[in-house]
Amino acid sequence: MKKLKIASIPGDGIGREVVPAAEDVLHTVAEIHGGLSFEFTNFPYSCEYYLEHGEMIPEDGLERLKDFHAIFLGAVGNIKLVPDHISLWGLLIKLRREFEQVINIRPAKVLKGVQSTLLNPNDFDLMVVRENSEGEYSSVGGRMFKGEDEIAIQNSIFSRKGTERAMRYAFELAEKRKKHVTSATKSNGIYYSMPFWDEVFKEVSKDYPNIDADSQHIDALAAFFVTQPERFDVIVASNLFGDVLTDIGAGIMGSVGIAPAANINVNGKYPSMFESVHGSAPDIIGKGIANPIGQIWTAKMMLDYFDEEELGTLLLDIVESVTGDRILTPDLGGKSSTKEVTNEIISRLKKRT
Ligand code: NAI
Ligand code: MG
């Protein structure tokens, strides 16, 4: 029996609605497998937790989480309770950094029955590999003076290790896909870091002669994501570029509510963390209409990570059979609730056994 111990952090807002839904789906998937089980342990870390305890996660929180096989996270953030930079840096970014989850991968593809925001989307299916530990998202810099003379300096950090690691991850991933890697650069505008990024990309690409490698400036790349997303397979990007590109990816799929993500610890020292792309969606909390598919697709990425790719593929096929029959939440133009979509996925999964 393969027993997977998962630390579950629903977080804030609709995170608490979609995480239990995706857990139910995972239990069903485990039943189909027969030799697999999930044990979820719930952690209440959230903005409400902060109000009560003065911190997003207790001092020994990381210690409590570190021996789980993975972390399953909903969304963090509630600006009515805690400013975003405190809640996100206090939990999400803390976990990503301390647990050395140095790679963030986010797919975007056309799902059957889901109307893309593009008028005539070709059948795109791409994956962004985002460097997740350094780059533009650094806490190096400072602020000086007040008023008219005030200045803020924000430094970017690009290490050879971090840059190469993200690129190698992208090439390895492309081996299993359409064998094409695009590097997101901006070496025509950013003087030091991006020419360095390009050099490392050239060097790394030499080790993968069977993979097509090209570079695109981020501005043109962003436009191509909208006009010709089908030309991409794997895209490797710095922390900031990857963050923005993946929101475009979610946008062209049709809703941020269906976009999944994984934060991968590549050295095996700490658990990886699986979280949907969307936030806590304050405008729809408690209405029962949050789209659970982002979290369920995230669960599929967790299955892939645990070498259960066959089950992962089955799960996404079932999700597409449900969307294909236009059983959709309101963000995708449907009338179904979180529960209805989840239950339909579960019942179709059961029929497959
Ligand atoms: P958001 O993703 O929460 O919401 C943007 C829009 O998309 C809203 O109209 C929302 O209703 C809709 N939406 C999002 N997920 C949906 C779903 N599953 N089903 C249906 N509709 C969905 O982004 P926003 O409003 O910028 O941020 C709200 C809070 O979430 C903030 O505190 C922010 O910092 C936090 N946040 C947290 C993230 C995380 O934990 N990884 C990521 C993004 C934002
Ligand atoms: Mg984002």
From TrEMBL:
It catalyses: (R)-malate + NAD(+) = pyruvate + CO2 + NADH. It is an enzyme of class 1 (oxidoreductase). One of its GO terms (molecular function) is tartrate dehydrogenase activity. Residues 5-345 form the Isopropylmalate dehydrogenase-like domain. Belongs to the isocitrate and isopropylmalate dehydrogenases family. NCBIfam families: PRK08194.1 (NF006048), TTC (TIGR02089). This is D-malate dehydrogenase (decarboxylating).
